[in-house]
Each structure stands twice: as structure tokens, then as C-alpha cells.
Amino acid sequence: MTWIVGIDEAGYGPNLGPLVMTGVACRVPEELVAVSLWRRLRQAVRRRPLEDDERLYIADSKEVYSPARGLGDLEKSVLATLALLPLEGLLLRRLLEHVCPARHHELHPEPWYTGDSLLPVATESATIIAATEALARCCLKNQIIIGVIRSVVVCPRRFNTFLDRWGSKGAILGDGLAELVQACPGTVDDEEPLLFLVDKHGGRNNYAAMLQNAFPDGMVVAMEERMARSVYRVLGLGRDIQLVIEPRADGRHFCVALASMVSKYIREVLMLEFNRFWQGHVPGLKATAGYPTDASRYYADILPAVKRLGLDEATVWRRK
Questions:
Q1: Does 79 fall in a domain?
Q2: What pLDDT does 183 receive?
Q3: Could you give the residue ranges of the DSSP H alpha helices within the chain?
Q4: 199 belongs to a structural domain
């Protein structure tokens, strides 16, 4: 058996709201490592937006979710995969305690965060439960285990601190990547091979130094470093560990697509709380997704309330 761990983020570009990075670990038989998990799980999942198809829609989150499409497909797939049953009375804070056990406390100082939002937001619980059961049956049939799913939520305070220290947004992704690499496998056998598949952002090709921080007891060796992909092996830990970082990995690999979706869903439900808070302080305020095209308008509208509440700009506005 081999562990495949997909890693992706949502919210890297916005000036408002959190950045979320997620790792999804799947344990598969050796013969399935190079096989499309979409194909093997096709009785329960799909990768295209088909009408009247109850299977889970799992793809790059930008395809599954848009404000026009709504949260339905994204929410159904994420909550069914997480299998947080019973769904009745599920609060956002419980979801975050499950996927962010090490970092959930960092949300507590955020003035807008309560964690009291009731989930699901846009989907019937019965629909999610049926999809959860269908996915479980399909995974069992194919000897596939969807294991640990872990997320890192980075709010503006921490985001700006990294910018001050390192002068680069890339350092923030590197820190999150190192944390997820260490937290995600959740393996039952420490000798089983590990394959990390990571969605690449920007023009950087060299990740060895960044990855070395995630494997302090091993040696990260670059096998290939090109625009098309960067490949690394980790030596000295008694198991086969490989990392592949490539553009558009969320469109090529099931685990990366699912990581993209979990990240997007967490960010979207957190932004619901973010907008609800500020709309309570600024009547008539139009909601925002936090991206640069709209963030300046929103921040100008809430700035009097920010000052009135005694908040520091660095705790609300991400500088890059």
C-alpha cells in the first residue's frame, strides 16, 4: 500500500480573510498509484458538472464553486468526504477542530469569528449522508482509504508577520506546506511509501531548502527542477518518500483536487462569518470575497468601524 497526499490552497490572492491550505491523504494499493482515482471511484464521484447526477463532484475548486453556482456541490463533496456524522447540529467550529486541531485556536482572536455557523449551509443533510455512504462503499470495494485531512488557516495577523520577517508570500506557503507534510500522512505503517503531490504557484522551481524544514531527520534531494514540475526524494528515513510539485495539479490528481475543495469550502464558510460581522457594524455593506478587485472598496467602508473597535490594520488587511 502507498499513501498519496494531495496539497493545495485557497485564498492566496485576497487582501481580506484567511488563507487556507489543506492536505488530503489517501491510502491505495500499489497498482493504483499511477491510476486515476476518479476512474476507480466513478460509481461515487465525477469530475464533470453533470445535471441530475447525485455522485460527488470532485475537481479543481474553481470549477466546482463560483458565486453563480453556489456552495451546493462544493459543500456536499467536502462534508461527505470528511464524513462528520451526525450532521445534525454540526457547527463550523467542530469542522475546524477536526481538520485544524493544531491551529484552530489562532482563529479565536479574530473579532469576526464565532464558529457558531450551522452546517451544512446550502445542502440537505440527507443528500450528504447518502453520498457519504456511497463513497464509503466504493472505497471499500477498491481498497482505498481516504485518511487524514488536515488544514492550516492563516489569518491576516500571521500573514503580515511572515511578510515582515521574510518579505515574501512564498514563505507563508512554505510554512504551511511543511506543517501539512508532517501532519497529513497519518499512516498505519511507517514503512509504507509516501507520495506528496503539490499544486505549484508562481514561477519558483526550487523547493529543496523549504522541504528540508519539513524533514529535519532526513535529506531532501532534488531529482528534477523545471517549470513543468519539481521532483524530490527524502533519504534516510527508512521509507520511500517522494514529492512532486507541478502546475495545475488540482486538475490532474484526485487528492489535490479534493484538497483544493476542502480549502475553498473552509474559506467560504469563514467568509460568511467575516461578512456577517462587518455587516452588523456597517449597515448596508455589500459582502465581499476579499479579492483585490473588491477588497479596497470593502475596507474603505469598514475602516471607521475598524478604528471604532480599536483594531490594528495589520489584523484585518493583508498587505500582499
A1: yes
A2: 84
A3: 37-40, 61-64, 72-82, 92-99, 125-141, 156-166, 170-183, 208-212, 254-281, 292-308
A4: no
